[in-house]
Design a protein that fits this description.
The structure is a single chain. By secondary structure, the protein is mainly α. The chain is about 65% helix and about 0% strand. The longest helix has 22 residues. The radius of gyration is 20 Å and the shape is elongated. The two termini are about 20 Å apart.
């Protein structure tokens, strides 16, 4: 396995135009696109808006100081998304044709309200989506058997002794394999996936 890298946010701060930017785009562009579709943004405009959101994240990341409160980063990202959507729909050339500005504004106000159901959906989808992406990015860094052990125990909920018997290894080797993968995922996901996801409590 390669040396454990810095968290995504630290890499982006250190190399905003290279690896960090590519990882940020790979990780977040599909999630942002999905939410843009909920606000009636057409595919022809979505890519530009995705770039605007991610550029704003990249540009302002140096001044983002995580306060240690659950949801700080995803809340910051959501605020940037809302801001760009409001500017988009208030521009003269991008007004909703059928239902006027008020419906879009109402939906954006709901997303902006941290206590709303829509905001809670954002929180859940963010954490679940980012976790899936991080799993996909982490897998190539481990031997196939190590990854299989991790999936059986951490994702499928199999008992360590059962997996040990299946794989023909010791129970301790199973625990070590799971901990190695979880350790990398924790570092990769630093401040991105909040404790509400519950996933890292499995370690």
């Amino acid at each position: 396995m390669h040396e454990t890298s810095l968290s995504l946010l630290n890499r982006l701060r250190n190399s905003p135009e290279n690896e960090g930017w590519n990882r940020l785009t790979e990780l977040y562009a599909p999630l942002i696109r999905r939410w843009l579709q909920r606000y009636d943004v057409q595919d022809c405009d979505a890519q530009d808006l995705i770039q605007e959101v991610l550029l704003a994240v990249s540009k302002d990341l140096g001044s983002f100081d995580h306060p240690g409160q659950p949801g700080a980063f995803r809340g910051w990202l959501k605020a940037i998304l809302i801001n760009r959507l409001r500017k988009f729909w208030r521009s003269r050339d991008h007004r909703p044709q059928a239902r006027g500005d008020s419906a879009i504004d109402a939906k954006l106000a709901q997303l902006d309200d941290p206590t709303s159901e829509l905001s809670q959906i954002w929180n859940r989808e963010h954490d679940q989506y980012v976790l899936r992406q991080l799993l996909a990015l982490a897998e190539p860094h481990f031997e196939p058997n190590t990854w299989k052990v991790f999936c059986r125990v951490a994702l499928e909920g199999a008992k360590a002794d059962v997996v040990a018997q299946e794989m023909g290894i010791s129970k301790n080797a199973v625990i070590v394999a799971k901990c190695r993968v979880l350790s990398r995922l924790r570092q990769e996901s630093e401040v991105l996936i909040e404790s509400s996801s519950g996933f890292f409590d499995k370690g």
